[in-house]
């Protein structure tokens, strides 16, 4: 395993902010320079600790099982086992239910991104992300939210949801377990709305919006909002937007 640190090790290990537990992050990328850059950024910020690094998907799964990080920054194209398969394996392990995966990609329309969300990732980041946005993304995902708000992300999900039916997939979940309001909430989550935006759109309190989202997730047996988006598209609750000029 490449550069795995002892549990809680590294320069950021003693950092605490606002009396809260620091966020533990694992790095999985086959490029050492990319890992080093993310490590330096995270460890320079109070409240973050890098628990280890992995150079391929096999090492990534081993690292996650050994360290139980809050968030994994997962590259897609890696040797031995790619990030998609590693994400699927992590998400399928009940012992790792609290681990969140952020997929790293070089291009906005990386063909693997929708598959990664389906496999259990909580969102994606471009590798050239601004430092402040990377730190924000780790916090957002660690808090249990999905990194799906940007317009480009919604466009990407719609794009690849439209392509995916050609591939063999499980039957979409039955949405009849949801109330009419819960269906409405899931559709809005698929648009990338936050709880506060949901509340404004539906003229309800943010707490009520959060309750509706949580109940929908429980009924559909999904781990976070990203999987609600996948279900919304695969079930036909939300229809992908037509391509420009298409």
Précis, in short:
With 246 residues, this protein is an alpha/beta fold. The protein has two domains: 23-147, 3-Layer(aba) Sandwich (Rossmann fold), CATH 3.40.50.2300; 172-234, Arc Repressor Mutant, subunit A (Orthogonal Bundle), CATH 1.10.10. Helices cover 44% and strands 11% of the residues.
CATH topology of the largest domain: Rossmann fold
Sheet/helix structural class: alpha/beta
Strand line-up in the sheet with most strands: 2-1-3-4-5
What is the 3D form? globular
The named CATH superfamily of the largest domain: Response regulator
CATH architecture classification name of the largest domain: 3-Layer(aba) Sandwich
Q: Give the CA-CA distance, first to last residue.
A: 47 Å
Overall number of strands = 5
* Percent range of helical residues: 40-55%
Low-confidence stretches: 1-19
Q: What is the C-level CATH assignment of the largest domain?
A: Alpha Beta
List the domain count as a whole number.
2
The biggest sheet amounts to: 5 strands, parallel
- Evaluate the radius of gyration: 18 Å
Compressed to H and E, one letter per element, the order equals EHEHEHEHEHHHHHH
**Helical stretch count?**
10
Mean pLDDT score, rounded? 78
Strand content: 5-15%
List keywords for this structure.
Arc Repressor Mutant, subunit A; five-stranded parallel beta sheet; 11% strand; 246 residues; 10 helices; alpha/beta; Rossmann fold
